[in-house]
Design goal:
The chain has one domain: Glutamine Phosphoribosylpyrophosphate, subunit 1, domain 1. Helices cover about 35% and strands about 25% of the residues. Bound molecules: asparagine (ASN). This is Isoaspartyl peptidase/L-asparaginase.
């Protein structure tokens, strides 16, 4: 089976010219890392984790280092992962002093009888697994500090669209054996209440993966995504015989018309078809398949290069 990986860098209201190239490089290297894992015979879970780690480590994105700050100026991160083979899933929320929440989510999936650990419990588990604790400050960037200051000045937090909610990251993959997986990781939304948990760690909302159908990772206004279970809703449409394009359009359209919520989706099906779709202004994405790397940021933009 020809493997596929698709990654996103979050729905956004527009990416400044200065940041555009950095964002593009980040998204391209995440897709390349994921694809190389698949080409080397790695599993879909390995590929989505590997791709998301690249984006968590990249300060341009709202996940891991570079996460947005909550109302107190602290980072609280959410992440989840799912293996389409047996629907096993792992998630963490409100974690602070960990470089790669997606790795911790995978450990929850593989090393505990549970699906979801939060806050101090998640951090205690991380310590028991030997995951290094890092000072929270290490994840805070100058850009995220300035972003929070601006947000507080404008008092515009938590609007019912994803204009303020940029940069969440995610990946979906199909491996050589026909297994699918997703991973999603985020700092959430800027100026959020302490303890606010968004859609990204919630299976069915932030993502879903089932070998019988396909895999999805979502981004956008978390409260809207949670209310419509955006990821599972998309796969439901696929199960009902809709095309990839139709499934993504229908679920995002429902969220927009019902809640005025904006967002984005990356989707791969069990046959290796894929689609990216968003209702926000832009969404950085990249997809690797059959030796080609496709990518874009704005609507209608598709660049294709050969993968070496
Ligand atoms: N940019 C995002 O996708 C934010 C994320 N969905 C959240 O609401 O936590």
């Amino acid at each position: 089976m020809d493997p596929v990986v698709v990654v996103h860098g979050g729905g956004a209201s527009g990416i400044t010219k200065e940041r555009r190239e950095c964002v593009r490089q980040g998204i391209l290297s995440a897709a390349t890392v994921g694809y190389n894992i698949l080409k080397a015979g790695g599993s879909a879970v390995d590929a989505v984790e590997g791709a998301v780690v690249v984006l968590e480590n990249d300060p341009e994105f709202n996940a891991g280092c570079g996460s947005v700050l909550n109302i107190n100026g602290d980072i609280e991160m959410d992440a989840s992962i799912m293996d389409g083979r047996d629907l096993s899933t792992g998630a963490v929320s409100a974690v602070r002093c960990i470089a790669n929440p997606i790795k911790l989510a995978r450990l929850v999936m593989e090393k505990t009888p549970h699906c979801f650990l939060t806050d101090r419990g998640a951090e205690k588990f991380a310590a028991s697994m030997g995951v290094p604790q890092i000072p929270g400050e290490q994840l805070v960037t100058e850009r995220s500090r300035k972003h929070l200051e601006k947000e507080k000045r404008e008092k515009g937090a938590q609007k019912a669209d994803c204009k303020k909610n940029m940069g969440t990251v995610g990946a979906v993959a199909l491996d050589c054996k026909g297994n699918v997986a997703y991973a999603t990781s985020t700092g959430g939304i800027i100026n959020k209440m302490v303890g606010r948990v968004g859609d990204s760690p919630c299976v069915g909302s932030g993502g879903y993966a089932d070998n019988n159908i396909g895999a999805v990772s979502t981004t956008g206004h978390g409260e809207s995504i949670l209310k419509v279970n955006l990821a599972r809703l998309t796969l439901f449409h696929l199960e009902q015989g809709k095309s990839l394009e139709e499934a993504a359009t229908l679920s995002l359209g429902y969220m927009k018309s019902r809640l005025r919520g904006l967002g984005g989706i990356i989707l791969v099906d069990k046959a290796g078809g894929w689609v990216v779709k968003w209702t926000s202004t832009s969404m950085p994405w990249a997809a690797a398949k059959a030796g080609k790397l496709h990518s874009g940021i704005e609507l209608g933009e598709v660049n294709t290069v050969d993968l070496l």
